[in-house]
Automatic annotation (TrEMBL):
Protein origin, superkingdom: Eukaryota
Coiled-coil residue spans: none
A Pfam family the protein falls into: NAD_binding_1
Domain FAD-binding FR-type: 44-155
Descriptive protein name: FAD-binding FR-type domain-containing protein
Length: 286
Protein backbone atom coordinates (compact mmCIF):
# COMPACT_ATOMS: atom_id res chain seq x y z
CA UNK A 1 0.00 0.00 0.00
CA UNK A 2 1.40 3.42 -0.97
CA UNK A 3 1.81 6.16 1.60
CA UNK A 4 -0.65 9.00 0.99
CA UNK A 5 0.48 11.47 3.59
CA UNK A 6 3.12 11.98 6.23
CA UNK A 7 3.32 9.57 9.15
CA UNK A 8 2.80 10.93 12.64
CA UNK A 9 5.33 13.53 13.81
CA UNK A 10 8.37 11.68 15.03
CA UNK A 11 10.64 12.80 17.87
CA UNK A 12 13.94 11.74 16.38
CA UNK A 13 16.30 12.26 19.28
CA UNK A 14 15.79 11.89 23.00
CA UNK A 15 15.21 15.08 25.02
CA UNK A 16 18.17 14.48 27.33
CA UNK A 17 20.52 15.35 24.43
CA UNK A 18 21.66 18.95 24.77
CA UNK A 19 23.32 20.17 21.60
CA UNK A 20 21.24 22.08 19.07
CA UNK A 21 21.86 21.33 15.43
CA UNK A 22 22.22 24.86 14.05
CA UNK A 23 21.61 26.18 10.57
CA UNK A 24 24.40 28.67 11.23
CA UNK A 25 26.86 25.85 11.77
CA UNK A 26 25.84 24.36 8.45
CA UNK A 27 26.42 27.65 6.68
CA UNK A 28 29.83 28.18 8.24
CA UNK A 29 31.15 24.62 7.95
CA UNK A 30 34.13 24.24 5.65
CA UNK A 31 33.50 21.69 2.89
CA UNK A 32 35.08 18.35 3.70
CA UNK A 33 37.11 16.82 0.89
CA UNK A 34 35.24 13.81 -0.41
CA UNK A 35 36.76 11.43 -2.92
CA UNK A 36 34.52 9.83 -5.53
CA UNK A 37 33.62 6.25 -4.59
CA UNK A 38 35.90 3.69 -6.22
CA UNK A 39 34.02 0.68 -7.63
CA UNK A 40 35.22 -2.64 -6.23
CA UNK A 41 37.59 -4.41 -8.60
CA UNK A 42 35.90 -6.98 -10.83
CA UNK A 43 36.53 -10.56 -9.67
CA UNK A 44 38.72 -13.07 -11.47
CA UNK A 45 36.43 -15.97 -10.48
CA UNK A 46 32.76 -16.18 -11.40
CA UNK A 47 29.82 -18.36 -10.44
CA UNK A 48 26.69 -19.11 -12.46
CA UNK A 49 23.32 -18.69 -10.75
CA UNK A 50 19.67 -18.64 -11.86
CA UNK A 51 17.36 -15.70 -11.40
CA UNK A 52 14.70 -16.62 -8.82
CA UNK A 53 12.35 -13.67 -9.34
CA UNK A 54 12.10 -10.29 -11.06
CA UNK A 55 9.33 -7.77 -10.42
CA UNK A 56 8.81 -4.00 -10.19
CA UNK A 57 9.70 -2.49 -6.83
CA UNK A 58 8.00 0.86 -7.40
CA UNK A 59 4.73 1.99 -8.93
CA UNK A 60 6.53 3.61 -11.88
CA UNK A 61 8.79 0.56 -12.44
CA UNK A 62 11.93 2.70 -12.16
CA UNK A 63 13.27 0.18 -9.63
CA UNK A 64 13.02 -3.61 -9.68
CA UNK A 65 13.28 -6.37 -7.10
CA UNK A 66 15.69 -9.04 -8.38
CA UNK A 67 16.41 -12.23 -6.44
CA UNK A 68 19.13 -14.79 -7.23
CA UNK A 69 18.97 -18.44 -6.26
CA UNK A 70 22.35 -19.20 -4.70
CA UNK A 71 21.46 -22.52 -3.08
CA UNK A 72 24.25 -24.19 -5.07
CA UNK A 73 26.86 -21.70 -3.87
CA UNK A 74 27.30 -22.08 -0.11
CA UNK A 75 30.66 -20.32 -0.12
CA UNK A 76 29.21 -17.27 -1.84
CA UNK A 77 26.32 -17.12 0.62
CA UNK A 78 28.74 -17.44 3.54
CA UNK A 79 30.88 -14.55 2.26
CA UNK A 80 28.04 -12.10 3.00
CA UNK A 81 29.06 -10.92 6.45
CA UNK A 82 27.90 -7.30 6.70
CA UNK A 83 25.06 -5.09 5.51
CA UNK A 84 26.23 -2.81 2.71
CA UNK A 85 28.36 -5.32 0.81
CA UNK A 86 28.19 -5.77 -2.97
CA UNK A 87 28.05 -8.48 -5.61
CA UNK A 88 29.40 -8.22 -9.16
CA UNK A 89 27.28 -9.22 -12.16
CA UNK A 90 28.46 -10.13 -15.66
CA UNK A 91 25.45 -10.11 -17.96
CA UNK A 92 25.12 -11.53 -21.50
CA UNK A 93 26.18 -9.01 -24.16
CA UNK A 94 26.90 -6.35 -21.54
CA UNK A 95 30.11 -4.41 -22.25
CA UNK A 96 31.23 -4.35 -18.62
CA UNK A 97 30.41 -5.94 -15.25
CA UNK A 98 28.27 -4.08 -12.75
CA UNK A 99 28.17 -4.29 -8.97
CA UNK A 100 25.05 -4.01 -6.85
CA UNK A 101 24.49 -3.65 -3.13
CA UNK A 102 22.85 -6.68 -1.55
CA UNK A 103 19.44 -5.76 -0.18
CA UNK A 104 18.78 -8.89 1.86
CA UNK A 105 20.35 -9.05 5.33
CA UNK A 106 23.47 -11.06 6.13
CA UNK A 107 22.87 -14.19 8.19
CA UNK A 108 22.66 -13.67 11.93
CA UNK A 109 25.70 -14.94 13.83
CA UNK A 110 25.27 -18.63 14.61
CA UNK A 111 22.33 -19.01 12.24
CA UNK A 112 21.72 -22.67 11.36
CA UNK A 113 19.56 -21.97 8.31
CA UNK A 114 20.97 -19.03 6.30
CA UNK A 115 18.99 -17.73 3.33
CA UNK A 116 19.64 -19.42 -0.02
CA UNK A 117 19.17 -16.26 -2.10
CA UNK A 118 20.36 -12.69 -2.41
CA UNK A 119 17.91 -9.86 -3.06
CA UNK A 120 18.75 -6.68 -4.95
CA UNK A 121 17.05 -3.37 -5.69
CA UNK A 122 17.98 -2.51 -9.27
CA UNK A 123 17.58 0.82 -11.03
CA UNK A 124 16.16 0.27 -14.50
CA UNK A 125 18.09 2.69 -16.70
CA UNK A 126 17.34 2.04 -20.41
CA UNK A 127 20.33 0.82 -22.40
CA UNK A 128 22.41 -0.17 -19.36
CA UNK A 129 23.40 -3.59 -18.01
CA UNK A 130 21.16 -2.96 -15.00
CA UNK A 131 18.16 -2.66 -17.35
CA UNK A 132 19.12 -5.98 -18.94
CA UNK A 133 19.11 -7.55 -15.51
CA UNK A 134 15.57 -6.24 -14.92
CA UNK A 135 14.47 -7.78 -18.23
CA UNK A 136 15.54 -11.31 -17.26
CA UNK A 137 13.05 -13.99 -16.28
CA UNK A 138 13.05 -16.60 -13.53
CA UNK A 139 15.40 -19.42 -14.50
CA UNK A 140 17.69 -17.26 -16.65
CA UNK A 141 21.33 -17.72 -15.72
CA UNK A 142 23.72 -14.92 -14.82
CA UNK A 143 27.38 -14.86 -13.91
CA UNK A 144 28.19 -13.29 -10.54
CA UNK A 145 31.35 -12.90 -8.52
CA UNK A 146 32.34 -15.98 -6.55
CA UNK A 147 32.25 -13.92 -3.34
CA UNK A 148 30.81 -10.63 -2.17
CA UNK A 149 33.01 -7.53 -2.05
CA UNK A 150 33.31 -4.44 0.13
CA UNK A 151 33.50 -3.94 3.87
CA UNK A 152 29.87 -2.93 4.26
CA UNK A 153 28.80 -0.62 7.08
CA UNK A 154 31.33 -0.83 9.91
CA UNK A 155 28.69 -0.64 12.64
CA UNK A 156 31.20 -1.53 15.35
CA UNK A 157 32.34 2.10 15.16
CA UNK A 158 28.96 3.27 16.49
CA UNK A 159 28.25 0.38 18.84
CA UNK A 160 27.83 2.80 21.74
CA UNK A 161 25.44 5.15 19.91
CA UNK A 162 22.18 5.91 21.70
CA UNK A 163 20.75 7.47 18.55
CA UNK A 164 21.49 6.54 14.96
CA UNK A 165 20.60 8.84 12.06
CA UNK A 166 20.22 7.04 8.73
CA UNK A 167 20.02 8.90 5.41
CA UNK A 168 19.13 7.29 2.07
CA UNK A 169 18.11 8.55 -1.35
CA UNK A 170 16.82 6.64 -4.37
CA UNK A 171 18.19 3.13 -4.74
CA UNK A 172 20.53 3.85 -1.82
CA UNK A 173 17.76 2.40 0.34
CA UNK A 174 18.84 -1.08 -0.82
CA UNK A 175 21.77 -1.62 1.59
CA UNK A 176 19.81 0.23 4.27
CA UNK A 177 17.16 -2.49 4.04
CA UNK A 178 19.95 -5.03 4.60
CA UNK A 179 21.01 -3.12 7.71
CA UNK A 180 17.51 -2.64 9.16
CA UNK A 181 16.60 -6.29 8.65
CA UNK A 182 19.89 -7.58 10.08
CA UNK A 183 20.63 -7.98 13.78
CA UNK A 184 21.81 -4.35 13.95
CA UNK A 185 18.56 -2.88 15.34
CA UNK A 186 18.13 -5.49 18.05
CA UNK A 187 21.80 -5.69 18.99
CA UNK A 188 22.39 -1.98 19.40
CA UNK A 189 19.10 -1.02 21.07
CA UNK A 190 19.54 2.44 19.57
CA UNK A 191 16.94 4.97 18.58
CA UNK A 192 17.10 4.81 14.79
CA UNK A 193 15.66 7.50 12.51
CA UNK A 194 15.60 6.95 8.74
CA UNK A 195 15.37 9.94 6.39
CA UNK A 196 14.46 8.48 2.99
CA UNK A 197 14.33 10.81 -0.01
CA UNK A 198 12.89 10.17 -3.48
CA UNK A 199 11.12 12.22 -6.15
CA UNK A 200 7.58 11.03 -5.37
CA UNK A 201 5.72 8.10 -3.84
CA UNK A 202 5.69 6.27 -7.17
CA UNK A 203 9.49 6.01 -6.86
CA UNK A 204 9.62 4.96 -3.21
CA UNK A 205 10.64 1.34 -2.72
CA UNK A 206 9.91 -0.92 0.28
CA UNK A 207 6.76 0.89 1.41
CA UNK A 208 5.27 -2.52 2.17
CA UNK A 209 8.08 -3.04 4.72
CA UNK A 210 7.69 0.24 6.59
CA UNK A 211 5.28 -1.06 9.22
CA UNK A 212 7.64 -3.91 10.07
CA UNK A 213 10.62 -1.57 10.24
CA UNK A 214 8.79 0.78 12.57
CA UNK A 215 7.75 -2.16 14.75
CA UNK A 216 11.47 -2.95 15.10
CA UNK A 217 12.03 0.61 16.33
CA UNK A 218 13.01 2.47 13.17
CA UNK A 219 11.33 5.88 12.78
CA UNK A 220 10.82 6.64 9.09
CA UNK A 221 10.73 10.18 7.69
CA UNK A 222 9.83 10.08 3.97
CA UNK A 223 11.02 13.14 2.02
CA UNK A 224 9.64 13.88 -1.47
CA UNK A 225 11.32 16.38 -3.79
CA UNK A 226 8.42 16.52 -6.31
CA UNK A 227 5.28 15.31 -4.54
CA UNK A 228 1.74 15.64 -5.82
CA UNK A 229 -0.76 18.01 -4.24
CA UNK A 230 -2.05 15.34 -1.85
CA UNK A 231 1.26 14.95 -0.02
CA UNK A 232 1.31 16.53 3.45
CA UNK A 233 4.70 15.24 4.58
CA UNK A 234 8.25 16.55 4.26
CA UNK A 235 9.14 18.19 0.94
CA UNK A 236 12.46 18.97 -0.69
CA UNK A 237 15.75 17.17 -0.20
CA UNK A 238 16.84 15.03 2.71
CA UNK A 239 19.72 17.31 3.71
CA UNK A 240 17.49 20.41 3.75
CA UNK A 241 14.74 18.71 5.74
CA UNK A 242 17.23 17.47 8.30
CA UNK A 243 18.74 20.95 8.67
CA UNK A 244 15.32 22.60 9.08
CA UNK A 245 14.32 20.21 11.86
CA UNK A 246 17.13 21.46 14.12
CA UNK A 247 17.00 18.44 16.38
CA UNK A 248 18.80 18.43 19.71
CA UNK A 249 21.95 16.35 19.37
CA UNK A 250 24.59 15.11 21.77
CA UNK A 251 27.40 14.30 19.29
CA UNK A 252 29.15 11.80 21.56
CA UNK A 253 26.09 9.55 21.64
CA UNK A 254 25.11 9.77 17.96
CA UNK A 255 26.06 7.68 14.94
CA UNK A 256 25.16 8.30 11.30
CA UNK A 257 24.83 6.04 8.26
CA UNK A 258 24.64 7.48 4.73
CA UNK A 259 23.86 5.94 1.35
CA UNK A 260 22.71 7.69 -1.80
CA UNK A 261 23.40 10.78 -3.89
CA UNK A 262 26.86 12.25 -3.47
CA UNK A 263 25.56 15.77 -2.80
CA UNK A 264 23.35 14.47 -0.01
CA UNK A 265 26.15 12.52 1.67
CA UNK A 266 28.56 15.47 1.44
CA UNK A 267 26.09 18.02 2.83
CA UNK A 268 24.89 15.77 5.64
CA UNK A 269 28.50 15.03 6.57
CA UNK A 270 29.29 18.76 6.71
CA UNK A 271 26.39 19.60 9.01
CA UNK A 272 27.10 16.69 11.36
CA UNK A 273 30.82 17.47 11.58
CA UNK A 274 30.07 21.17 12.12
CA UNK A 275 27.94 20.25 15.12
CA UNK A 276 30.61 18.12 16.69
CA UNK A 277 30.12 14.61 15.31
CA UNK A 278 33.39 12.82 14.61
CA UNK A 279 33.83 11.65 11.02
CA UNK A 280 34.65 8.24 12.43
CA UNK A 281 31.03 7.98 13.54
CA UNK A 282 29.67 8.70 10.05
CA UNK A 283 29.45 5.45 8.09
CA UNK A 284 29.18 4.69 4.39
CA UNK A 285 29.58 1.38 2.59
CA UNK A 286 32.41 2.57 0.32
Amino acid sequence: MLLRSAPRRLHLLRPHHHRLLSAAALASAAPAPTAAPVPPQAPTEWAEAPVASVRPATADASLYHVSLDLSAHGGLLASHAAAGQFLHFRLPSAPYPIFLAIASPPPAPGSSSPAAAFDFLVKRLPGTPSARLCDLRPGDLVHVGASVVGRGFDVARIADARDVLVFATGSGISPIRSLVESSFVEDHKAGISLFYGVRNLQRMAYQERFNDWETKGVKIIPVLSRPDSQWTGERGYVQNVFSRMKNIVNPSSVGAILCGHKQMTEEITRVLVADGLSKDRILTNF
